[in-house]
Amino acid sequence: MNKHLRSFQILLLSCGLCLFIAQPLVALAAAESPSKSNAGTLLGVIEKGTLRVGVSLFTPWALKTKEGQLIGFEIDVAKRLAEDLRVQPEFHVFDWDKIVPALLNREIDIIVAGITITPQRALKVNFSQPYATSGIGLATNTALTKTFAGPNDLNRPEVTITAVTGTVSEDLARRMFPKATIKTFATSHEAMQAVTTGKVHGYIEHEPIPTFMALDHPSIVDEPLSEPLLTTKSGFAVNKGDPDFINFLNAWVISHEADVWLPSSSKYWFESLEWRKNSKETP
Asked: How far apart (Å, rounded) are the C-alpha atoms in residues 182 and 193?
């Protein structure tokens, strides 16, 4: 009886010792080989071989060719990013108000859509450091403003400045030129037409529209400012909890600013009209 009891005790002790040794080994294995459900986004992208990219159609950030193919600054950026990750890009087009929810629901891995870095958005997503700079600029009617010495001359009651109704550009126009007459339009097309036909002195709008207006109508429209009235910075947006992805994206931005790929691509899409020959639309 005592002999059997002693054997049983030894067996229990052995089992306990095995469990004691096995537990840290299992934990170590789990740490070294994380499951796909717990893997960070960067690891998941590499494992799948596909980078799911969220974009939104805004010319020239992202648009479609006559054949329906996606082109644009953000499309080029996403393709180069995927190439450097050695994966294939998979584009998903969303309306602007649906793109952040799509990231949060993990329908996509990353937003590459000229999304402006703001504190409010950073509460929901993690941003990389900026890879693009944009802002709100000014286009003026050359004939109406040829005697003006500078932007301060626009801040007079007899000067009419336009913007699209209910936009940040309208708010900026009222703040920067409080003495001027502010006339708003429902669409950007109407506001642009008001400038080119001489009905208003100037138009405040997000870049690159002022730049494109000056390129399209060089004898009628001028872009008098060397810098935007308001500057914004755009970054990649990914889900929270993936520092490795942010680290890679920051390194990617630094590298391609240094080799001037990013500045060159930005200049092509935002400071020229060469891309229009491959597009089915114009701004």
From this structure: 16
The closest of 143, 150, 99, 144 to 125, measured between CA atoms, is: 99
Domain boundaries, the chain: 41-131+235-278, 134-231
Chain position carrying tokens 């859509």: 113
Instruction: Give 41-131+235-278's CATH code, choosing from 3.30.9.10, 3.90.226.10, 3.10.20.30, 3.40.190.10.
Output: 3.40.190.10
- CATH classification code of 134-231: 3.40.190.10
pLDDT of residue 281: 54
Match 């002790």 to its residue by tokens: 13
- With left for phi above 0 and alpha for psi between -120 and 50, is residue 68 left, alpha or beta? left
The tokens describing 272, both together, are 């020229």
Q: pTM (2 decimals)? A: 0.75
Task: State the Rg of the chain over Cα.
Answer: 28
Query: What are 195-240's pLDDT values in tens digits?
Result: 999 999 999 999 999 999 999 999 999 999 988 999 999 999 999 9
